[in-house]
């Protein structure tokens, strides 16, 4: 009797814990959905958008590109979208998916998909801006043709690391090295954005291949929008948002769990594989551009 009642008591305690946790994540405004218009809105060239059920298509033609942005700003969590990039000739075009804060000291995490002539591979350029300064480009080709099917592209952001993922495979990690005196982006709410535009002055084969407008419109397709992150109301000060979006004695957010504070062994192996087989450029090893190695490159293990 005694043992069974103490078991039901402890189960009850567990129930309360679960309730508290789900209330905490509900107040965090954590959102998980796949509908474009719940999370995002077109930010320019509304006539360059088409909706086909769960599918969104955004086009670039010789008149305009297009872009969309999240309705809310966030701190920490994970954002994902599935993208099918421009088919056929995409030379000169760039499709971007990124998070960014506002202002001259902004932080930014970028995926930029650089188009190519028919049959030649897309390049994925990633970049990280901290306090308004970027110049941290990496480039890789992919292990699949990103124009044939939808693939998921994600940004995982917490106080320890920013991870860029392609189909859940990490392709880049930007670690928090504040203990070495290196600034880390963790104090500004960020919006989520995507756009397609003409960048034929630099994007394809170093700008040598120009956009062939006879092949327009250039169409990028999207589906599977997911944001599982902490919503930061614009009316709330950044420092209050930062506190609210960080775990404390009362609330525990998944993005603060030890399991996402660094890559798992399996993920580390995946990242090594990507770097060995698919990376074509890394600012950390560009001695022409950076005669003295950027300070975070000395400490980043990857
Ligand atoms: C844009 O392209 C269309 C079709 O190729 C062409 O008819 C039109 O003149 C072009 N417009 C401009 C502003 O270049
Ligand atoms: C385009 O294809 C060429 C030739 O295969 C390749 O060198 C280049 O990296 C590709 N990507 C871009 C964006 O230029």
Give a verbal description of the structure.
- Helices cover 19% and strands 34% of the residues.
- With 302 residues, it is α+β, with helices and mostly antiparallel strands.
- The chain has one domain: Sandwich (Jelly Rolls).
- The strands form 2 sheets. Strands 1-4-13-6-7-8-9-15 form an 8-stranded antiparallel sheet. A 7-stranded antiparallel sheet has the order 2-3-14-5-10-11-12.
- It is globular.
- It starts with a helix and ends with a helix.
- It binds 2-acetamido-2-deoxy-beta-D-glucopyranose (2 copies).
- Residues 62, 213-214 line the site of one 2-acetamido-2-deoxy-beta-D-glucopyranose.
- Keywords: Apoplast, Cell wall, Cell wall biogenesis/degradation, Disulfide bond, Fruit ripening, Glycoprotein, Glycosidase, Glycosyltransferase, Hydrolase, Secreted, Signal, Transferase.
Core attributes:
302 residues, alpha+beta, 19% helix, disordered N terminus, binds 2-acetamido-2-deoxy-beta-D-glucopyranose
Secondary structure class reads alpha+beta
Low-confidence segments: 1-28
Strand content: 25-35%
The tally of strands reads: 15
Record the SSE blueprint.
Elements: H1 2-27, H2 36-39, E1 40-44, E2 49-52, E3 55-60, E4 66-70, E5 73-84, E6 93-100, E7 108-114, E8 123-129, E9 138-140, E10 151-157, E11 161-166, E12 169-175, E13 191-198, E14 218-232, H3 238-244, H4 265-278, E15 279-282, H5 295-299
Antiparallel strand pairs: 1-4, 2-3, 3-14, 4-13, 5-10, 5-14, 6-7, 6-13, 7-8, 8-9, 9-15, 10-11, 11-12
The structure holds 2-acetamido-2-deoxy-beta-D-glucopyranose (2 copies).
The site of one 2-acetamido-2-deoxy-beta-D-glucopyranose has 3 residues, from loops.
Active site: 108 (nucleophile), 112 (proton donor)
Function: Catalyzes xyloglucan endohydrolysis (XEH) and/or endotransglycosylation (XET). Cleaves and religates xyloglucan polymers, an essential constituent of the primary cell wall, and thereby participates in cell wall construction of growing tissues.
Protein name: Xyloglucan endotransglucosylase/hydrolase
């Amino acid at each position: 009797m005694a043992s069974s009642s103490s078991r039901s008591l402890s189960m009850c305690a567990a129930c309360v814990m679960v309730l508290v946790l789900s209330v905490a994540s509900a107040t965090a405004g954590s959102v998980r959905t796949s509908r474009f218009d719940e999370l995002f809105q077109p930010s320019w060239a509304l006539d360059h958008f088409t909706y086909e059920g769960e599918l969104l298509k955004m086009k670039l033609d010789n008149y305009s590109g297009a872009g969309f942005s999240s309705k809310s700003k966030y701190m920490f969590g994970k954002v994902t979208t599935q993208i099918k990039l421009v088919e056929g000739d995409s030379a000169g075009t760039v499709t971007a998916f990124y998070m960014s804060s506002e202002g001259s000291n902004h932080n930014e995490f970028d995926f930029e998909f650089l188009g190519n002539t028919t049959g030649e591979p897309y390049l994925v350029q990633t970049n990280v801006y901290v306090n308004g300064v970027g110049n941290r480009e990496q480039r890789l080709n992919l292990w699949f043709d990103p124009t044939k099917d939808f693939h998921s592209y994600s940004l995982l952001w917490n106080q320890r690391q920013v991870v860029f993922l392609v189909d859940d495979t990490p392709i880049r990690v930007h670690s928090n090295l504040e203990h070495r005196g290196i600034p880390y982006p963790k104090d500004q709410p960020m919006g989520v954005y995507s756009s397609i535009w003409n960048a034929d002055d630099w994007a394809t084969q170093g700008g040598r291949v120009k956009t062939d407008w006879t092949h327009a419109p250039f169409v990028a397709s999207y589906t599977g929008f997911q944001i599982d992150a902490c919503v930061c109301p614009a009316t709330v000060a950044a420092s209050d948002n930062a506190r609210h979006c960080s775990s404390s004695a009362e609330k525990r957010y998944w993005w603060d769990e030890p399991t996402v504070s660094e890559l798992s062994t399996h993920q580390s192996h995946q990242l090594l594989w990507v770097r060995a087989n698919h990376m074509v450029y890394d600012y950390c090893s560009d001695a022409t551009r950076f005669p003295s190695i950027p300070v975070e490159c000395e400490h980043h293990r990857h």
